[in-house]
Amino acid sequence: MNHISFTIIGIFAIVSLLFPTPTFANYASQINWELIVISSKPACSGYHYYIVEKYHDISEKYLGLYQLDNKAYSPQCMTELKYLTEYEKPHDLDLLILVYDREKGREDLHSQNIGGIYIHEGDDLSRNHTIIFCDCSNFEYSDPVWILSHELSHFVLNNLGFDLKVAEKEIHELDDKFDFCVEVEYNEEDCSSIKTRIETDRSSV
Ligand SMILES: [Zn+2]
């Protein structure tokens, strides 16, 4: 559990440094979102329902950190077939979060060298946002929670109308640096600023 809060706060701390939090709430209208776990099996199992709750909670907390006014549809699990043939997006949905189970993630994402993706379609920044990632073991240096919070950061900044190119570049540079400091090598000169910020934020939550 500690690790989860650490990684969430980590990327939040990084992003909030670039775009200070108090301004966020002023821009946003309510975000309606839904999380769906996609099962590669013929049915949804206990494992699938566990990750439905897990990633829904994390997403909710993360959006809460940005103080975004948001309303979640009940999270659910669907088989691939059911999702393709029966799922109807609620008409007022702004953000859809699709979580692939391990097998589907390995097949559809990791084999393409993708840990997670954030997609926005159309010109209206308030809607048509999709995040896809999987409940897979570490992809390169990132665990699923980190990937989810990373993609949510893209969503939040894009939704609020920040220049996407600038935001993406900054998030990725800091993300790489963070990964390196946490996973590869900690050296005081390059890593101390990131580490300090994360610990500061962490202790206040
Ligand atoms: Zn990214």
Give the arrangement of secondary structure elements.
Blueprint: H1 2-18, H2 24-27, E1 31-39, H3 46-65, E2 70-72, E3 76-79, H4 80-86, E4 95-100, H5 102-108, E5 116-120, E6 129-134, H6 144-159, H7 164-184, H8 188-203
Parallel strand pairs: 1-2, 1-3, 1-4, 4-6
Antiparallel strand pairs: 5-6
Helix pairs in contact: 1-6, 1-7, 1-8, 3-6, 6-7, 7-8
The chain binds zinc ion (ZN).
Zinc ion (ZN) is lined by residues 150, 154, 171-172.
Tell me what you see in this structure.
With 205 residues, this protein is α/β, with parallel strands linked by helices. It has one domain. It has helices at 2-18, 24-27, 46-65, 80-86, 102-108, 144-159, 164-184, 188-203, and strands at 31-39, 70-72, 76-79, 95-100, 116-120, 129-134. Strands 1, 2, 3, 4, 5 and 6 form a 6-stranded mixed β-sheet that branches. α1 runs parallel beside α6 (144-159), α3 crosses α6 (144-159) and α6 (144-159) packs antiparallel against α7 (164-184). It binds zinc ion (ZN).
- What gross morphology would you assign? globular
What structural category characterises the helix and strand content? Answer: alpha/beta
The total tally of domains equals 1
Counted beta strands:
6
Show unreliable segments.
195-205
Termini gap: 14 Å
Instruction: Give the topology string: H per helix, E per strand.
Output: HHEHEEHEHEEHHH
Radius of gyration using CA atoms only = 17 Å
SS element count, helices? 8
* Ions, cofactors and other bound molecules: zinc ion
Q: Indicate the proportion of strand residues.
A: 15-25%
